[in-house]
Amino acid sequence: MSDQALTKVAEPVPTRRRLPSFNPIYLVLLVLIAAIAVKNPQFIEPIQFMNFLKRGAPLAILSAGQVFVLVAGGFDLSVGSLITLTVIGASMLSNNDPNATWWVIALLFLLGVLVGLINGLVVVFLRVPSLIATLGMMITLTGIALFWSGGAPKGYLTDSFRVFGRYNIPGVPGLGILPVALIVLVVVIALLWWLLHRTNLGRLLLAIGDNPRASQLAGVPIERVRIIAFVASALSGTVAGILLGGFSGVSPDAGNGYELQAITAAVLGGAQLLGGRGSVPATVAGAFTLTAIFTLLNFVGLPNPLRSAVQGVILIGAVALAMYRRKRTGK
Amino acid sequence: MKRLIMLAALLSLMLGIGHALAQAAPNFDDPAEFAKQKAELTATPADPNDPIYIQHFGTDMVDTTKFMKPAPWTLCFSNAATDNPWRVVGLKNMQAQVAVDKANIKDFIVTDAGGSDDKQIADINDLLTGKKCDILMIAPNTTAALTPAVEKACAVLPVIVFDRGVTTKCPLSFVHPVGGYGFGIAAADFIAKNVPKGGNVLALRILPGVDVLETRFSAAKHIFADAGLNIVGAEFTGGDNAKTKSIVEDYMQKGKIDAIFMDAGATAVAAIEAFEDAGQPVPVITGEDQQDFLQKWKADKLTAIAPTYPNYVWRTAILASEDVLSGKPIPGPEWVLPQPSITADNLDKFINTSMPPLHYAMCGCEDFPDYPARWK
Questions:
Q1: For A241, how many CA atoms within 13 A lie in the half-sphere containing its CB?
Q2: Beta strands B230-236 and B200-205: pairing type?
């Protein structure tokens, strides 16, 4: 009798609650890639596909950094302008000298740490909501970039600086080319994944986002953990800026709009806007989904006004799917 | 409830699309203006021996004796924005001219509207109520919205409008280069000459809805149609290098590109790099007079042209203002400046590797005493 009861419990119950246990964003991404491949079979050839990954790398890294702030219940709107400042700063600092690359990159990382620290300190100790604190930082950084460059950057980005975002290692067996940006992507994402999903820090971030009061009572060093989240996000902005500057060269508005794209990518990947939930790999898939939508629309060749509309519908649809899944599975 | 929300969302989306389509209505395809600008591209200006920034087409002048005033003057300028390198270089041209004429100019007051119509209307109001200005220069943010403010200013002060236009004839003169059609004609004619019939042209555009940009593309479309060229795509880049490069990469996969047409050259180098990085030859390309493009063109021996929207129009505005206050007649009601293109023949003359990459070579600023330091 008791045996029977046990087996009954262990047996999977076939109800209509059952949905795929993996995150639907991966499915959305696969469908989009398949759609692009149907429109343009060349796309899945190794070289073209590598180029696609290279193009999406800056946003993927930026979004993965953003997840750290999102899961802890905040926003980081300053990363787009940090990208702009990174690109402009690189051109101003290196002053067309290819030997300057290394110390320029070191300085840019310092800048990233500084921006993240200020964001975190303002949010934690001045108790300014992160939306406002980082909005203020966004405006400040844009102003600094404009002031520093006088509106138009004064130098080029040297080839040695642009290696990270632009150069492809040729003749790699099986792949054809291996973009340096892709190596950076893999390393950074692996690091961020490990931090969020395999360390204590990650668990604390999620706990704070889920229930800040409870985690505080449980002894979580809320201040320190929150500040670390902002620093991680800002550093991802620095890396994204270095890659983006490398990919496309100097431009006075390189990072425009990237903060919202990063948040969108994270939400596509199932991150919850008020914290407590989020995943690095799914966010990366979300970022590539955004890049794929853009590419697909280039291939389909819709008239321009329609294109924005379609982009919006795909976005809303993907997020709605994520929400539906969450409701049904409780995940 | 959920269905209702979905329905509402769908409805508002459709309304949005309808609105976007309806906005395409204004006429940016005027055959008479096309013909006029085409003629002006090759016409000889009234005084061909003058420096290029004071040349003009036609002989119509406006009398300004009633505005004559003893120097020194206070010049005022309501600027739409300083949000792109073209406008940055332009403002420096103005400041340089003011510095040269400092004996006659005691003050140069500039307001910057940051790309907002409301702010610029308020700026103009402030300048009028401040009563310091002897003359007002206006670079309007948008045509229709600023017209009433310009009319209001005309009632009080002599007004010079430049860069973008307004729909009133009240300013003493509207200072501008040949125009958007002229830009499009110069670029598209070059492509038509260098690409055989049936060739594929990718049009990279910067923004929708701005008259001087729309006319560039509408002129080009006519020329491509007449030359039997296909426009394989017309994409808005928003002036974003990364987006430009991605668009070009995608179109390269779709099929052969024989030429790139750009209605503004800011991202030309990114477009070129897309071909380089794919190991493909760079096709015929049209850009603009920014140093990074000119230098790339020379270094890679491209088949290219740089039509210009000459930056010296900013300098001309100051010179026109000084003429007005001295009672000298000025070309008007429109002061049409020449709009030369940079071609392979005169490319070397415009390249200056010591200038910033986004400096506009057709600035007409080389004869200032503080050139090039001020522009670096």
A1: 32
A2: parallel
A162–chain B Cβ distance below 8 A for any pair: no
Domain end point (choices B282, B305, B328): B305
Average pLDDT over residues B20-39: 75
Cβ-Cβ contacts under 8 Å for B77 (sequence gap 6 or more): B94, B108, B109, B110, B111, B136, B137, B138, B139, B317
Residue A8 has pLDDT above 50, yes or no: no
Same domain, B163 and B186: no
Question: Do the domain assignments include residue B3?
Answer: no
Q: What single string gives the DSSP state of each residue in B200-241? A: EEEEEES-SS-HHHHHHHHHHHHHHHHHT-EEEEEEE-TT-H
Going by C-beta distance under 8 Å and a sequence separation of 6 or more, which residues neighbour residue B58? B46, B331, B336
Q: Is the domain of B290 the same as that of B248?
A: yes
* N-term to C-term CA, chain B: 61
> Is the ipTM beyond the 0.90 threshold?
no
Which chain B residue has its CA at the smallest distance from A50's CA? B278
- Residue B346 inside a domain? The answer is no
Which residues lie closer than 8 Å to B18 by C-beta, 6 or more apart?
A: none
Strands (E), chain A: 168-172, 176-179
* Chain B residues touching residue A295 (CB < 8 angstroms): 246, 250
For residues A323 and B135, give the distance between their C-alpha atoms in angstroms, rounded to a whole number. 60
Average pLDDT rounded to a whole number, residues B83-107: 94
Question: Phi, psi (5° rounding) for residue B369?
Answer: -65, -30
pLDDT value of position A7: 46
**Region B241-256: what's the mean pLDDT?**
91
Task: Classify the phi-psi angles of A45: left when phi > 0, otherwise alpha if psi is within -120 to 50, otherwise beta.
Answer: beta
What pLDDT does residue B6 have?
A: 53
Tally of structural domains, chain B: 2
Percent of chain B past pLDDT 70, that is, above it, reads 93
Q: Give the contacts of B8 (CB within 8 A, at least 6 positions apart).
A: none
> A40: which chain B residues are within 8 Å (Cβ-Cβ)?
253-254
Q: pLDDT value at position A22? A: 77
For residues B127 and B163, state if they share a domain: yes
For B169, the token pair is 């004839």
Give the Cα separation of B272 and B294 in Å (integer).
12
Beta bridge partners of B184: none
Among B257, B282, B305, identify where a domain stops. B305
Residue among A247, A248, A316 with most chain B CBs within 10 A, to mutate: A248
User: Taking a C-beta distance cutoff of 8 angstroms, is the pair B162, B150 a contact?
Assistant: no
Q: Within this chain, do residues B245 and B332 fall inside the same structural domain, yes or no?
A: no
* Tokens coding B375: 């522009």
Chain B residues touching residue A154 (CB < 8 angstroms): 356, 376
Mean pLDDT, residues A280-301? 90
What CATH number has the domain bearing residue B93?
Answer: 3.40.50.2300
Question: Do B52 and B97 reside in the same domain of the chain?
Answer: yes
Q: What percent of chain A has pLDDT over 90?
A: 60
The answer on B175 and B320 residing in a single domain is yes
Q: Which range of residues forms the domain containing residue B148?
A: 42-179+310-339
- The first and second tokens of residue B151, run together, are 């009319």
pLDDT tens, position by position, B31-90: 999 999 999 999 999 888 999 999 999 889 999 999 999 989 999 999 999 888 899 999
Asked, for residue B86, whether it belongs to a domain, the answer is: yes
Tell me, yes or no, whether B241 and B289 share the same domain: yes
